[in-house]
Structures are given as C-alpha cells and as structure tokens.
Amino acid sequence: MTPTSGSILSNRVYLHLFLAQVVALLGTGLATVALGLLAFELAGGQAGMVLGTALAIKMVAYVVVAPVAVAFAERLPRRALLVSLDLVRACVVLVLPFVTEIWQVYLVVFFLQAASAAFTPVFQALIPEVLPDEVQYTRALSLSRLAYDLESVASPLAAAALLSMMTFSGLFVGTTVGFLLSAALVLSVHLPRVKSSERRSIYDATTRGIRIYLATPRLRGLLALHLAAAAAGAMVIVNTVVLVQAHMALTQHATAIALAAFGSGSIVAALLLPRLLERMTDRTLMVRGAVLMVLALVAGSAVLRYGYLLAIWFSIGFGYSLVQTPSGRLLRRSSDAEARPALFAAEFALSHACWLVTYPAAGWLGTTMGMPPTFVLLAAIAAAATVAACRFWPRSNPAEVEHEHANLSDDHPHISDAVRVGASFRHRHVYGIDSHHPEWPQPDRAPRKDVDP
Questions:
Q1: Side-by-side strand order, sheet with 424-430
Q2: What is the pTM of this model?
Q3: Would you say 433 and 215 are in contact if contact means Cβ atoms under 8 Å apart?
Q4: What count of other Cβ atoms lies within 10 Å of the Cβ of residue 220?
Q5: Whole-angstrom Cα distance, residue 210 to residue 204?
Q6: Do residues 212 and 346 lie in contact, with contact meaning Cβ atoms separated by under 8 Å?
Q7: Binning pLDDT at 50, 70 and 90, where does residue 316 land?
Q8: Assuming Cys at both sites, which of 55, 57, 172, 301 could form a disulfide with 375, CB separation 3.0 to 4.6 Å?
Q9: Residue 272 to residue 234: CA distance in whole angstroms
Q10: What pLDDT, in 10s, does the model give residues 185-200?
C-alpha cells in the first residue's frame, strides 16, 4: 500500500517533530512581526534600514554558524542538543522587550539566529531517519513546505489578534511559548541514535559537509538551483512593497495580498509535488520550476497592472516550491546517516549564502535602476543558474554507480562483493562521497587513492 500523509502522521516520533516545527515556526513569525514594531519604535523612519541590517545579520549567522555548530553537535546527544537550543531561543526572545538601543537589537538577533542555525540542520537531518521510506519522506517534505508557507499567513493573523489584547512586547511572550512547546515535543520522543564511526577534529567536521556537497554532481546542481530560487524570491520579498505601494499607489492590504499570491503558489505546488514526483525525476521537476521562475521574472519587466503582478507572483511561488521542496530527497540520497547532519548544515549555509547575494542585489538594483531592469537582471541571474544546474547535474545521474577502488587491500570488507579488474576492484552500489569515495567517478579516469572526505 502506498503511504499516505495520514500514515506519516500516525508515526508518533514524526508527528511530535512536525508539531515542534509548526509551533516553533509560529513563534518565529510572531517574533518577526514584533521585531518590525520594535524597530519602528526605536528608529522611526529608519526602521527599514534597521530591519535590513537585522536580515543581513540573520543570513551571516546562518552561513557561518551552521557548519560549525553541527561539527560540535556530532559530540552531543541530539535530543538534548535540540531541547537546549529551543530553550536558548526562548531565553533570547525574552530579552527583546527590554531592548532600548538599536545595537542591542542586532546583538539579540545574531544570538537568536545562531541558535536557529544550529537547530535547523540537526532537526532536518532527523526526518529521513525517522521516515526511511522515500515516498513517506517526500510527503514529509511537502508537509514541511506547507508549514513554512502557512506560517507566513498564520503568524500575522495571530499577531493581529494578540495585538488587540496586548502591546507588541507581548508577542515576544508568544514566541517564547512556541519555543518551549517545541522543546517539550522533542523531549517527549526517543530519537534515533547515530554513532560516529570515528572521532574528527572540529575543522574536519566543520568542512566535511561542504566538501561532500561540492563533490556531488546533483548537489552542485542543487546549489545552482538555490541561486535561481533566491534571485526570484528576493525580487518578491524585497520589492513587492515598492511595486504595489510606490509604483501602483495601492494600499498595505494590496501588498499583503500580493505576498499571499506568492505563498499560495508555493502551497499549491507543495500539495501537487508528491504526485508529480511519481511521474518525473527530481531533476526534471526542479529545472522546470526554475525555468518557470525565469519566465515569470521576464514577464514581470512589463507588468503595469496589479492583476498581472498577482499572476506573476503566484507563478514564482509555484516554481520556487518545485525547486526547494525536493532538496531533502537529494541530500538523503547523497549521504549516510552518520554524515547527514553535516550535509544538511552545508545545505543550510550554502543556500542562505545565495540569499545573502540576492537580497541586497534586488534592493540596490531596484533603487538605482528601476523595476523593469531589476526584473530582467534577476531573470538573467536565475537563467544562468539554471543552465549551470543542468551542466553540473547530468540527466543520467543514477543512485547506484559502478566504480573502481585502487588502494584497498584484498580483504577489505568494502570490496567483498567487488570484481578484480587488473590492479583495481570494480563494483556497483549507492554512491556517496565518504572515506572510500573521495570524488565522483569520471569516465576514463583512473580511481584516486581513498582519503577521508
């Protein structure tokens, strides 16, 4: 019987982890609204600059902290680590109502996002171990995408309801409650344990995930697709308010609807994705999503009316979800359980590095060159990234790869099923970068000496 989303939620461990994700996301959404209000209270008309700087600090924390944090996390029990990070986030948020200076906002945001940068990759790497079946895992990825998209809708609504009863400082209490509930849900289940096969230095553990990521063709393609998604997504997130309220002279409500159109496209794609992946490969679906975003950006350069903008934003959201949602399947396919947290941390850092480039590009280009050229230039970035993805990630990229080992002893257990070919041993299995496979096999190329990745 084909697993359904219902059967996924009947898995107690996954259900608790999914609920932990949902309540933490809701809390984070409340903090985002409250942070904007706090910035306005402290900086007035300069609130946009404060929030822009805070967003840049968030991206820097994600890019720098995630690989290092996961390297230390390899030495700690994962459940205790996740609960501790939730408690740290809860305590940091409680400090925000007492902030009186802008520099204090930046400091608190860094510590909050640093804890999230440590929490998220470890949490994400758990899910394929809890749901080892690929069909179930695909449905879990769709649910996770839905949770992210619905958070962007539910959090502002919840914030509006709470603000009718309390000041914006009270929203930080809601955020704290979300993180505490997340910690309680993680604490309520027993998580799979993965014992590291060897002790690694902090430097080696920090860089390991990135080395595996960049040595794997499908993941190099994924990184290029992340850049395409970041180019299109940055146009939406940074410039929607300018397009709607400055260029079209519409209201804040119209801005919210435009952002909701982007989220709606992403939600629809996430709902359709499990069935689409039964009919086509990850590569085909993700590349088509990227092409859709490129075409939508090109169409956006000629947008003059609000209705067209909604359709374009919906299309970008749809393509964005097609690119982003299956990424966990590629990471799962490219690693074993022991290396998976490091690889998820690399994915977290590298994908956010793309946003660190496209966020300021979208804002600077929109301000200095105007919106039509910004649409075209971001479309060009997305198109170049899509072409690069097709080049990095060949159409024929099977999970099992035939390859040779030249430097393993005859009695090494890894080549027990191999056939001797001259001085080497040849066999086929699901291939991933590790100590026995330091690089991806290339045609007509002699195998290299086995080294630690």
A1: 400-405, 424-430, 419-421
A2: 0.80
A3: yes
A4: 18
A5: 10
A6: yes
A7: very high
A8: 301
A9: 24
A10: 999 998 877 655 556 6
